Amino acid sequence: MNYRFSRRMDALKSSAVRDILKLTQGKEIISFAGGLPAEELFPLEAVREATERVFAGGKHTLQYGLTEGYLPLREQLCERMTAKSMPVDPDQMLLTTGSQQAIDLIARVLTDPGDVVLVENPTYLACLQVFQLYGMRVIPVESDKDGMIVEAAEKLMKEHKPKLVYIVPTFGNPTGRVWSIERRKGLLELSRKYGVPIVEDDPYGDIRFDPKADYPTLFSLEGKADGGSVIYLGSFSKTVAPALRTGWAIGDRSVISMMAKAKQAADLHSSTLDQQTLDQLLRHFPLDDHIRRIATAYGSRMQQMQQLLRQQGWSDVSWVEPQGGMFIWVELPEGLDAEALLRAAVGKGVAFVPGASFFAAEPQRNTARMNFTYTEGERMKLGIERFSEAVNEFMARC
Amino acid sequence: MNYRFSRRMDALKSSAVRDILKLTQGKEIISFAGGLPAEELFPLEAVREATERVFAGGKHTLQYGLTEGYLPLREQLCERMTAKSMPVDPDQMLLTTGSQQAIDLIARVLTDPGDVVLVENPTYLACLQVFQLYGMRVIPVESDKDGMIVEAAEKLMKEHKPKLVYIVPTFGNPTGRVWSIERRKGLLELSRKYGVPIVEDDPYGDIRFDPKADYPTLFSLEGKADGGSVIYLGSFSKTVAPALRTGWAIGDRSVISMMAKAKQAADLHSSTLDQQTLDQLLRHFPLDDHIRRIATAYGSRMQQMQQLLRQQGWSDVSWVEPQGGMFIWVELPEGLDAEALLRAAVGKGVAFVPGASFFAAEPQRNTARMNFTYTEGERMKLGIERFSEAVNEFMARC
C-alpha cells in the first residue's frame, strides 16, 4: 500500500539541520547543538529514593491516573507557583508530557487553521512546528535584546487579530535574551486591550546566573489565573531531568479544563510514575538548592565558552552575554551562511544549530545557537577550537 | 479575558456519562465502569527492581531520549512481535504514551478534516473522540458477534472512499467480541483492494482466557510491515501497568517515521524512565507467565460476574460470553435507557458505562458495559446486587 499523508504534514518543513546532524551519528562529535542539560548534575540518587517512596505506597501507584495529573504534585506545584507571586489552584493547572505538549494542546483548543499567532523573532523552533501543523499563520514580531517591540506587536494585533502570542521572555531559546520589565508590562497591556492570550513559556527561568536577579513573569504581573490573559508553562526538564517528561500549564480554569479534554483524547494522561516520583522528590529533596548549584555551574560554563570565543579575536562575530538559560546566540560575519558552516564544522568534529531555523519568516543566516551546558573544560575548549577553524576557513574564503 | 475555543473542540461531545460518574466522587461506589486492571495483580516488585537496574546505569538514564522511543525496548518488542508472527524492525515501530497517543498520531498524519473513517458498531469510545477532534466523519459499519460484516464494509468503502478503518478485533471494547478468521481475512482483502489502511488496536489480545485459543492478528495475516496495510497498536497498560503509559505502533516505515515527526511536535518523546523500566522488566521478569496469571484471574472474575447476572433470572437480559478482555456487554430489555438506569444505580452505590456512548451514529440505548477485572468476590457480589435492584425497579416501571 502507498500511504497518502495529510495536508498538515506537508506544512511541516523538513529540517535541513536535522539531516546534517544525522551525519554526526556514530562519529566522535563535540556537540553544542542540542539543548541538553549537564548529565553529571542530574540528581540521580534523589530520583532513585523518590521512586522507592512511590513504590512503598503499594500497588495502587501503578494504576491509571487523572488526565489533569497527579493531584498531590499539582498541589505542591501550586504552592511553589504561589510563592513566586503566581497564585494558582490545582484546578487551574494541567500536568503535561514536557511543556512541549502544553504548546500542542493550547494550539489545539484555542486555534483554527488560518488563525494568526505572533512570535518573537527569532523564536523556539519546536513551537513553529506545532503552529505549522495546526495550519496557523505564524507572524514574527520585530524584537531586540529587550524582547518584542511593543509598538510592532500592537500594529500586528490591529492588522491581523491574532489568536495567540507565544513568547519565552526569560532566557529565550535561541537568543538567551531577557525581556525588560517595560516590554513585559507593555505586551500584557496589549493582550488585555486586544483580547489576545499570551503563552508564556518559561523552561529556563530558574536557571539564572545571578541569584539576586529578579525577572517577574508576565503571569505574576497579571496576578491571577481566572480571567487572566496569560497561560504560563513550566517544566522539570531543566531543573530535575528530561527523562521524567513532566511540564505544567497554568491559567484560566476554562482553558485548563478544555486542554484537559483535548489531552484525554491525545493520550489519556502522562506517566503517573514520573509524576509521583516528582511529588516525592519535592517532599524530600531541596530542589531550590539543587537549582542554584546547576545555575552556578551553567554560569561558569557560559563564561568559559564566552572567553574561548573572545580569544579567537574575531572583530565581526558578536553576541549578547546571556544572564541565564542554556545558549549563546552568535552573530557571525555578514554573508556567512551558518548552514554551510555547519557542514564544514561537522567535518571537523563539532556541531551547533544554524540560526535560520528559528526564524518564522525571513531568516538571518549568519547566526548560530551554541549550547554551553552539555560540555565543559577541555572538551569545550577542543570543540570551540574546531568551530573556530571552520569559521576561519569560511572567513578566509569570503 | 473571555477565551474563545477552536471549532474542533465544539465537535467534542460533552459526555453525559462523565457527568454522572462525577457524582460518584467521594461516595462509596462499587464501579464496573472504568476499564481498570486489577491492582492486586500489578507486578510492583518486578517494576521496582527494574527501576533499580535502570538507575544503576548511571546519570545518562535521565537525559532526553529519542522521539521514536528507547531503542533497546523497541528491539525487544520487535523480537516479541516477530515471535507472534508479526515480523518487524525497530524502524517500523514507534513508542507512544499509551496506545491512545498512537490513535491520535495516526489521525494526525493520515487524515484531513472531512475524511471518512469506518469503525465497528459499537466501538471504543475514546477513538471516537480523537476522530471527532480531527474533524473526521465517523461511519459505523454493521457488525455482529463475529466482527464487522465484510459486505457492509465494502459497500461503504465504495461509497465513501474512507481514509482509515479502525478496529479492535480481539476482545473488543465495549463488546468483548472476537472477530472470526474469515472476517479478518475479508477486511484485509478489502483494505488492499480499496487502498484503505487498517488500524488494528490490540490492547486486550494477550488477555485470553483459554491459553490454547489462537486469534491471529490482521497484521500477522498480512505478514509484513513495509508495504502492508495494517498499522498495529499494542500496549503494556493491561499486561504490566497503566502508570508506565507505554504503547507501541508498528507498520510501514513511511507511516511510522511520519508519526514520529508528528510526535516530535506533540511532546518530543514519551517518558524514557518508563521505557527503560519496561526494557529492564522484559529482561528479568517472566512477563508471559505473568500475563497467564492475569488472564486466568480475569477469566474467573468474568465467570463470577456472569453467574451473578444469570442468578437474577432475567429473561430479557442477554450477553455473549467473552473469551478474553475486560468487559461483559449486556443487552438490557428493549426500551430501557441505560443512562437513566445509571443515575438510579449510582444512587444505590454501583456504576457501569451505558452503551450509547460507544455508538458512532444511532445508539442502542438498552446496553451496558460491565467491567469484571477491577472487583471480585464479595464486593462484586454486592455490586451486582445493587445493579440488579436498579434494573428490577426499572423493569417494574416499564
TrEMBL record, chains A, B:
Transferase is among the record's keywords: yes
Keywords: Aminotransferase, Pyridoxal phosphate, Transferase
InterPro entries the record matches: Aminotransferase_I/II_large, Class-I_PLP-dep_aminotransf, PyrdxlP-dep_Trfase, PyrdxlP-dep_Trfase_major, PyrdxlP-dep_Trfase_small
Gene3D superfamilies: Aspartate Aminotransferase, domain 1, Type I PLP-dependent aspartate aminotransferase-like (Major domain)
Lineage top rank: taxon: Bacteria
Assigned protein family: Belongs to the class-I pyridoxal-phosphate-dependent aminotransferase family.
Protein name per the record: 2-aminoadipate aminotransferase
Organism of this sequence: Paenibacillus abyssi
Organism lineage: Bacteria, Bacillati, Bacillota, Bacilli, Bacillales
Underlying gene: avtA
